[in-house]
Amino acid sequence: MYLYFKVLFNKLSLKDFFSIRTGKKILNLKYNSHQIFLEKLYIDLEKSYEIYDTKYLNYFLFKHIDTNLFLSQFFSKDFNSFRFTKVILISLARNKKICLPIPPFWFNIFEKKGLKLSKIGCYSLFLLQGLFKILVCCKIIINLIIYFISNFIIKKKIMTTCYLTSH
């Protein structure tokens, strides 16, 4: 879990960068190309939304939104920023279990590809990431409410001031 936070906050050491290179070499030896292996992994993860029933968001709030597309876009953001790739390569180089904030139905896909996962760590990070996103959304909603209330009060004061000065 510590490694994911190091990557997340961009606090990698020189040893970590050498581990990334070593992880690439390990995948190159096993699968002839680390890029192709990781690309196939990401494609399998994207396809998993079609295989598994991930309609659990539809039951609560989002009945008109395709949750498979929503979740796919949400998680592909982390893959496109290479956070997950760095954690996978460093974990392979250090021969440690991978710990990423991934949904539980991805565990089998990682294991089929021969990657060892810390299931408890992955699930914990997944829940922490979800709670963090909810808190950020709540903060934004509260800020919007405060903004609209303050604008309403200011407009009301201006209107009463204008009314009093005109009479």
Question: Which features would summarize this protein structure in a list?
Answer:
single chain, 167 residues, mainly alpha, 7 helices, 74% helix
How would you characterize the overall build of this protein?
- The protein is mainly α and 167 residues long.
- The chain has one domain (2-129).
- 74% of the residues lie in helices and 0% in strands.
- The protein has helices spanning 2-8, 14-31, 34-51, 67-80, 83-94, 107-112, 119-166.
- Helix 2 (14-31) packs across helix 3 (34-51).
Alpha carbon gap, first and last residue: 68 Å
Number of DSSP helical runs:
7
**Count of strand segments:** 0
H-E string: HHHHHHH
Query: What structural class results from the helix and strand content?
Result: mainly alpha
Give the strand content.
under 5%
Which regions have little confidence, pLDDT < 50, spanning 5+ residues? none
Largest sheet: none
**Tally of discrete structural domains:** 1
Helix content: over 70%
Radius of gyration: 23 Å
In summary, what is this structure?
The protein is built from seven helices and no strands.
Topology of this protein?
Elements (H helix, E strand, L loop, with lengths): L1 H7 L5 H18 L2 H18 L15 H14 L2 H12 L12 H6 L6 H48 L1
Helix pairs in contact: 1-5, 2-3, 2-5, 3-4
